[in-house]
Fold this protein.
Amino acid sequence: KNEVEQSPQNLTAQEGEFITINCSYSVGISALHWLQQHPGGGIVSLFMLSSGKKKHGRLIATINIQEKHSSLHITASHPRDSAVYICAVSFYVQGAQKLVFGQGTRLTINP
Amino acid sequence: DTAVSQTPKYLVTQMGNDKSIKCEQNLGHDTMYWYKQDSKKFLKIMFSYNNKELIINETVPNRFSPKSPDKAHLNLHINSLELGDSAVYFCASSQGWRDSGRYFGAGTRLSVL
């Protein structure tokens, strides 16, 4: 079982809908990352957070350390938001940093 | 100006060949990474260098050898390519090796025939 699980794996919605993607992890972490991978393959780092909430434009990321859970929200979704969203957590094992990725959530926003 | 650039973007080669992928970042970051994304789209860390020093080396075959001539470059050399090496390889950089945002290159799609 992967240390990072995302849900849903696939999500299709209509333009304008509020989107939530969830990420649960099973290890103590030092930080959690949300990444966006475009259909062309490029990866963009959206957020890195270790507590609370961050907002960038229409994107909001929250994390609950006690519950080992993070959510990525997209308000007023648009077809250009269609991409794979990847959650990743970083933690330390014997002093070495590890970064483990979730399997990704494929989001499709229809016009 | 591209922040993290990888070359080539596509690489098609025969089994047994040796190939290199180059990565350069112009962000002034001191940490660089190589990730492998397999056919199921799972991303995995391969290597990480901080100030030209190897700090993460996941369970990767010895055929893979990263080389960091300076902080702005981290190249990946692969010997004796195998079919299972076919994947997309992403380079990334960050400021500091402890938790900071990663900037990714566009990826190199390697196909081993």
DSSP finds no helices and eleven strands in chain B. Chain B has a mean pLDDT of 89. Chain B touches chain A at residues 40-45, 48, 55-56, 88, 90, 92, 97-104, 106-107, 109 (CB under 8 Å).
